[in-house]
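Reply to dn_fold:

You asked what the input looked like. This is it:
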Amino acid sequence: MNFLIFLGTERDSTPPHPARLGLRVARACARRLDALGLDFRTIDPLEIALPSPFKPHFSYAQGKAPEQLENLARQIRAADGYVMVSPEYNHSMSPALSHLLNHFGSSLFSYKPSAIVTYSAGQWGGARAAVNMRTYLSELGCLPVSAMVHVPRAQEVFEEDGAYPQEAESARWDDYMDRTLLQLKWWATAAETQRAAGTLDAPGAFTKDPSQRNAP
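and this is what came back:
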């Protein structure tokens, strides 16, 4: 199993404090995936030069998109599932995360699962953003598993490297996060089995023309 962890923050300054709180959460997810024996890679929007003005990957002539977009498209296509890490902005997901994902058509994500992981510096843990993300990820084609991870006061839960400041808390948080990540693994295994058996008899995924979804 091969998973991509999408980091939903590109702010690398203070305030807020500590800077890039989401990176701690993404690293915590990476630690749990590793403990479960799963391969992963973290996708950091700060490391990707997106086209400006906006031009999605699929709007370029085939093979003519910027290399970073082509490379990420290959990784998305090859992955078995996705972990989406986001703070909350106005009861919605991170603009940095949606901007990154919007560059790619659902054909790259479709028929694979995703896991929603949200966080905050305050008490709600980004839970309201998670509700918004269910709709978004379903439209993208990578349906989110039912369990979710919400991390309130993430700066107190995780150190900069994603470890716990107090080891006594590790078992409780590990169990909580594994509930979601093991669901992700289960559904990813099921989807991979269908693909390997050639029994995924499903219509083609939406790529670029909205009229593909029009009623007759």
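The two ends are 39 Å apart (CA to CA).
Hope that clears it up.
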